[in-house]
Every structure is written in structure tokens, then in C-alpha cells.
Fold:
Amino acid sequence: MKYVNASNILPEKLIAEIQKYVQGETLYIPKPEKTYRKWGSCSGARKSIDDRNASIKHAFTKGKSMSDLADEYFLSIETIKKIVYSNKKH
Structure:
């Protein structure tokens, strides 16, 4: 996490108001919720996992066993069950 000196970016009046509540401490100011991004949305990891899960579901509907899918994708049978039986659309 990058730290910034408040006096370098905030107006003096705002700093004076904040100092009524906290002084000499590190203060974290979170982003607004609307700017949050879901995990993996920037790196493409989320899409990769969604694509993998869709392939697993498709293979299962075509008759491939959970054991075979677990071996093929290096996942536990419990994880395969969660993927196969989830209601999430891919």
C-alpha cells in the first residue's frame, strides 16, 4: 500500500477538520464501492476459471465421470461436485 502525506494533496481546511478526529496516525481512506472490481477481472483469471468450469460442466453432461474430471483438471472430487452442481451460468 502506498502512503501519501495528506498535506501534499488535501486542502488545509480539510486537514484541520480531520485533525479534530485523528492526529499523527496512518489513516486508510477506502475507494467508493462502485469502483471495486471483482477478483481476477483485470488479470483475466476470472474468465479463465469460468471457461474451465464451463468445460467441466459440459464434459460431465456428456458422461465423463467426476473422478476422471478431477484427474484431468487436478482438482478434488468435492471441487468438481461444486462446479457441476452450481447454478451459475457459464
Observations:
- The mean pLDDT is 91.
